[in-house]
Amino acid sequence: MGALLVGLSYAKALSFAINKPLVGVNHIEGHIASNYITYKELEPPFICVMMSGGNTQIVYVKDYVTFEVLGKTRDDAIRRGF
Q: Is the dihedral of CA 34, 39, 43, 47 positive or negative?
């Protein structure tokens, strides 16, 4: 949590110093949206398994801006093995 607070404080200070707006972005939604870069044919609705750090979420992506978390872990991530 400390690293997130330091990063946010730095972003706020930088935004103020260069007189630019600070735009908040939902980290989890960003992970989901990044799929559109790799899979250009991907269109909602679909089910997405999102893994970030130590967390996993199963998300129903209803449309490009509407998400429903169907299930999630806390401080535990599924692993893919090959």
A: negative
